[in-house]
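Our working data are protein records whose layout never changes between entries. The record below serves as our worked example for the rest of this section:
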Amino acid sequence: MNRSILINVLLVVVLPIVLLLIFPYTNQHAGDLFLGFFPVDKTVSFIALVLLISVIVKYAYEQKSHASEIREVIPRKFIREGIGRCAEMGRPCMFVPGTSSPSDVATIAGLAIGSVTIDEAIDLDVFIDSPQRDYMVMPITKSLLEERAMLKGRPDYPSTHSDVFLASTVQFTHAQLVAGRLERDRHGFAVFAGMFWAEMLIMLEAATMNGAMVLSGVDSVVQMPFAVAASDKALLGEELYAAGAQLSEEKRLVNSVVAQDLIKSLLFTALIVGALATTIQSFF
């Protein structure tokens, strides 16, 4: 059997059964079980899980040959303009991929945006300054920088035009160091994309006060007002994930975003239909 077909079968059929069986069910009578083990009262949940996982499999795995079209969340030319500003002014670019670990989806999305920023910086010979807080994200950022430099034919770039280092694992110590470097070096463009907490406002304010063009991306609800107030361009919530997929041009990531939106549409439609059906039934 083809390997991809086997993976699809496992995802669509076996996974929902496992998910349903690991949760305890109320009826323990043998008559309420299908084939002696599957709870009949979870049939609807099983069908829903199969449908939802099928959508993800269809878009993320089967459509590898082409990427679905999504709205342009952030134009690539915005990042190019920011890096061009650094080149014209002779100033470095600041990139901070959040202050959390790689286990956060926002960190991965931030690194995807950082990849495009690095590409543009290499093209225009702009220095990349990247103070890190997490000791696991730092080597990932370094590897990303080296990979993009090799693809651009500039293997010397990481050692001569970048400074990726572990600033501090302490929240506000890291924020103050970033603010201090922004004050000292007067960066022309600053990218803050990832998971942030209260320290975000300190860094955004320092970048704005020192004349940097600021791009921010955050999925934390409490930090969104700060991102809007202190950034030239802010990616809020799921815009951060969509922008990361869009800019990376990774077909599977783009298709996954489309699949998630389709699932939300299906769930929203089901809620409306269910509410209408319940309302109509109450009159009869």
About this structure: Strands lie at 33-34, 38-39, 93-96, 128-132, 162-166, 189-194, 213-218, 233-236.
